[in-house]
Amino acid sequence: MDWKELIGFIGGFLTTMGMVPQVWRLFKLKSAHEISLTFSLFFIIGIAFWLVYGILHGLMSVIIWNGIALILGCGMFYAKMKWGR
Q: How many domains, the chain?
C-alpha cells in the first residue's frame, strides 16, 4: 500500500468513526428529533454515490469506508423514521 492510499484509509476511518457516537446515541436514547430528515436523505444518497465512485475506480479506501458509512447512515435514517417524528 502506498502512502496516498494510506492517507485515504486514515481519512476514511476518522470521518466514518466520527459518525459512530451519533448513531449510538440515537439508538441509546431512542430519540432522533434533532436529526434532520433532509440531512439523512442527502447523506445516504451522497455516500451511495461515493461508494459507486470508489467501485468504478477500484479505490479500496473509498469502498470500505463509504460502505460502512452507508450502513451507519441507514441506521440513522431508520432511527429518524422510528423515533424522530
A: 1
> Has residue 13 been placed in a domain?
no
The secondary structure of the chain as a DSSP string is --HHHHHHHHHHHHHHHTTHHHHHHHHHHT--TTS-HHHHHHHHHHHHHHHHHHHHHT-HHHHHHHHHHHHHHHHHHHHHHHH--
* Residue 4 cell numbers, joined: 496516498
The per-residue pLDDT for range 38-82, each reduced to its tens digit, is: 999 999 999 999 999 999 999 999 999 999 999 999 999 999 999
In this predicted structure, the answer to whether residue 85 has a pLDDT above a threshold of 80 is no
In whole angstroms, what is the distance from residue 85 CA to residue 75 CA? Answer: 16
Mean pLDDT throughout 12-26?
95
Contact by Cβ (8 Å): 21, 73: no
